[in-house]
Amino acid sequence: MNENPQCLWSPSPARIEASRMHDYMAWLKREKQVDAADYQALWQWSVDELSAFWESIWQYFDVKSSAPYTRVLDEIKMPGAKWFEGSRLNITEQLFRFHAGDDGEKPAIIGKSEVRPTVRLSWTELRRQVASVAHALRAMGVQPGDRVVSYLPNIPETVVAFYACASIGAIWSSCSPDMGTPSVLDRFGQITPKVLLAVDGYRYGGKDFDRLDVVKGLVQALPSLEHVVLLPYLDQHARLEGAHAWQELLTHDAEMRFEQLPFDHPLWVVYSSGTTGMPKPIVHGHGGVLIETLKGHGLHTGLGEDDRYMWFSTTGWIMWNSQVTGLLLGATIAIYDGNPGYPDLGTLWKFAEEADLTVFGAGAAYFANCMKAGIEPRKLAKLDRLHTVGSTGSPLPAEAFAWIYDQLGQDILLASISGGTDIVAAFVGACPILPLYAGEMQCRCLGIAVYAMDEEGRPLQDAVGELVVTKPMPSMPLYFWNDPHGLRYRDSYFDMFPGWWRHGDWLRITPRGGAIIYGRSDTTINRHGVRMGTSEIYRVVEAMPEILDSLVVDLEYLGRESYMPLFIVLRPGVTLDDALTTRIAGNIRTALSARHVPNEVFAVAEIPRTLTGKKMELPVKKLLLGMKVDEVANPDAMSNPGSLGYFTEFARRREEEHAAAAGLAH
Predict the structure, then answer these.
(1) I need a surface site. Which of 124, 132, 145, 495 has the fewest CB within 10 A?
(2) What distance in Å separates the CA atoms of residue 122 and residue 110, rounded to the nearest whole number?
(3) Which residues does 277 contact at the CB level (< 8 Å), separation at least 6?
């Protein structure tokens, strides 16, 4: 561990004073007599006085509610905490508290893609389109609680559709069009949607991908659908029998209506896969998402009405949700649909200039790729207004921190954050009033009682442990869909520490109060920020007649590239050759996504299993990360203890190769 990391950035007194975090602290002192000496004291107060803190966020941001809440929090418990009971609100109503009158011609959305040139949607036009689409959905019979699912790319129409659904109280759920039919059905099939919004195809890396057959397959496989809306995107003449055309939804001169909903009314269903079974359909509420967004975007990122905000994402990643909720602070959002490396890695930086961005975010892998490719952003684009750069999805190594400051200047706040789809928030992240050190996130986020814990549940100081949250957050899942007794919900987060949320990340809290994430502590795959359970890959791979068994692990770890090997047991007489490896990759790419294609495929004699037949993914992962075999597995608990010999030798060879490569690099 680096005991003396380099301080890469310190905010100037003027920047601190201009920050919303500073203004909030002054407001607390003035209105609540809470006088926090520094950020660490503020964080401590926020978790010690949980109800008072979240009530202060409600009041500071003046959350609009048509009925008052009767209490902030019923009791400190997980799961099942009740927040702001009695209040009634609508997240879309927050959207249109900004930019009325003459200001309404400012852009709300700036969109660009490989298919289309840059488009700008004003706040006035955004309101008109949201009202029109909501009217059309109501005419289709959509009511509060109905599910509307999206198979749309990251374009302005998708944002319009989401806020139209939210204004009604319908429940939104999204998959990216690059996801294959099985992966989409694994998600949408669980929630019985009433309406499907889809495109005919998309373009990525200069190549066109027709999705009409996929859409037809989805329609046939989702019997609950009553209406389908097709947005011609790749081909303006595309049609689908029986489907509404998107353009029809925009023709209504309708009044904007906001259904008044309880704080915990479902807003969307997002998906985060564990190691077994179907993707987890996670339900978040209007109020929880709203109040967490105001705190996270407003205080930690500092978003406001003068900002232009982009976080590159597909519509299948939680950062799309984070992107579109930037509008709730009055910021303009800039969205891009396409390959960020096409025609080269300068594409997004050039778009940043065109959109006049103040905040630019992407997955950590994007910045690492730019660094390796020798990209020099300020030589490619004018980025004078850029004040914050965001990174998430996987740990950002210290050398990438340094690259960002070398390339973008010394007055940039690097908002490196780590959170999860599961809580639609960051546990640890940025703070505009704190210094920033290489390789570290600056702080634990306000209102989040997050700690590094050992296996006995004891907090660790300056040591790596499990990321654990000991008190509830408003944006935690309301429940999982089709989990009536909450068993799957509890098993997913509360199995190791009953009553505490265990997220499945390795965390260290530094002596400075910062945080470092060291990758996943469980076996969930996290490829470039998109999480997926191993079971989804097994379903594809083991459906192939040549393959009897398989095991996959994601060896993402701080400072190293993500590396995901796939180990397979072949049917007798079958050889693992280039043709079979190519077919395995193709099947995974088609059914799931390109992100989940393994780096390499290896044939093994057998897969390690417990006496009860479970694949021993976590022990193998620990072996390959350098732990000793007697530390990761008890042979008496295995049905085939000899199988670990291969993986022990594999780990030894890989470590020798890594050490040799590091030696050559130096």
Answers:
(1) 495
(2) 9
(3) 488, 533, 535
Beta strands in 367-524 (DSSP E): 388-392, 413-416, 418-420, 425-429, 436-437, 443-444, 450-453, 465-469, 479-480, 501-509, 515-520
CB 301 within 8 A of CB 390: yes
Closest CA to 515 of 475, 555, 469, 471: 469
Label each residue of 580-599 as H, E or C: HHHHHHHHHHHHCCHHHCCC
Place of tokens 């079971």: 535
What does the alpha-carbon distance between residue 116 and residue 155 come to, in Å, rounded to a whole number? 10
Q: Which amino acid is at 149?
A: V
With tokens 């969205």, the residue in question is: 335
Query: What pLDDT is stored for residue 558 in this prediction?
Result: 56
CA dist., res. 131 & res. 530, Å (int): 32
Query: Which residue matches tokens 């379903």?
Result: 539
The mean predicted confidence, pLDDT, of the chain is: 92
Question: Residue 272's closest CA among 186, 380, 396, 337?
Answer: 186
Distance in angstroms (rounded) separating the CA atoms of residues 666 and 662: 6
Q: Phi/psi at 245 (nearest 5 deg)?
A: -90, 140
The sign one gets for the Cα dihedral 527, 627, 538, 420 is negative
Among residues 617, 616, 626, which one has the least CA distance to residue 648? 626
Q: 156-211: per-residue pLDDT in tens?
A: 999 999 999 999 999 999 999 998 898 899 999 999 999 999 999 999 999 999 99
pLDDT, position 275: 46
In this prediction, the residues of the chain whose per-residue pLDDT falls under 70 are 1-3, 273-277, 528-531, 556-561, 611-612, 661-666
Residues comprising the chain, all counted: 666
61-94: pLDDT as tens digits: 999 999 999 999 999 999 999 999 999 999 999 9
Let me know if 119 is exposed, middle or buried by CB neighbors in 10 A (0-12, 13-18, 19+): middle
| pTM over the 0.90 mark | no
Q: What sign does the dihedral 31-37-39-42 (CA atoms) show?
A: negative
Closest by Cα among 610, 393, 614 to 505: 393
DSSP-derived pairing of the beta strands 450-453 and 465-469? antiparallel
Per-residue model confidence (pLDDT) at position 519: 73
Task: Kindly state the tokens that stand for 590.
Answer: 């088609």
Full DSSP string of 468-485: EE-S--TTS-SEETT-TT
CA distance 367 to 403: 9
For residues 92 and 112, give the distance between their C-alpha atoms in angstroms, rounded to a whole number.
24
- Candidates 456, 552, 557, 440; CA nearest to 497 is 456
User: Hey, what are 360's tokens?
Assistant: 């630019």
- Phi, psi for residue 527 in degrees, rounded to 5: -100, 110
* Residues near 313 by beta carbon (within 8 Å), at least 6 away in sequence: 154, 319, 320, 322, 323
- Who's near 236: CB < 8 A, 6+ residues apart? none
Peptide bond into 572 cis (omega under 30): no
Measure the CA–CA gap between 125 and 140, rounded to whole angstroms.
23
